[in-house]
Amino acid sequence: MGTGDVYDLGCGNGAMGDALRALAGGRAVIGVDASPSMLEKARMVKAYSSVSQADIASWRAPRKPGLIFSNAALHWVGHHEKLMPQLAEMLGKGGTLAVQMPHQNKAPSHRVWLGLVEEMFPGRVEKMGTPGVMAPVKYEELLSSMGQFRLWETEYYQRLVAESGSHPVRRFTESTYARPVLQALDEGEKTALIKRYEEAMHAAYPVRKDGSVLFPFRRMFFTLTM
Length: 226
Known about the structure:
Blueprint: E1 6-9, H1 17-24, E2 29-33, H2 36-45, E3 50-53, E4 67-71, H3 80-90, E5 96-102, H4 108-120, H5 136-143, E6 148-160, H6 168-173, H7 179-183, H8 187-204, E7 213-225
Parallel strand pairs: 1-2, 1-4, 2-3, 4-5
Antiparallel strand pairs: 5-7, 6-7
């Protein structure tokens, strides 16, 4: 990590604030998020030197950062071919860009939402409105020539449960990945889509006797040090 400030891009409610402060070694830790309500929660953590409301796509660091960190946020920001090099170019000498994003879009939990909505309501949902990441090789091609680049993925297994009558994976994805899909539909259409999605999830992720599902979720990580 370089000598500059530490930025937490998409800091949300400040969940990573304490860990970043411990890592910062006395450097300023700044939380950046587009949501005023999330920033208010981040302030309550008291781990940040300051917080800043900004759209990540147009955000610029006022000084060369020592670390730009982003945990589970950049998949909501489009145009990664431009965004990632743009972030890297802000770093000072020895500075690091550290990113974690879900990489689950090809799994049944995610791709079935898009497949079904296109089958049932063609043209109603713009695919690019849903969160996404590029193929891992694209990040390597974009960034490896800029500095020391490392890239890896890890699949985490989560035990999901839901209220009776709902598949746990549906409850897990509908408020995150599937939110743009469901927002494009009226109530009757949502009900029909969810019914079909639940049927597919029971086949892809069988529910155990206790009502739970052991759900594999893949995440991508990369670091670039200048």
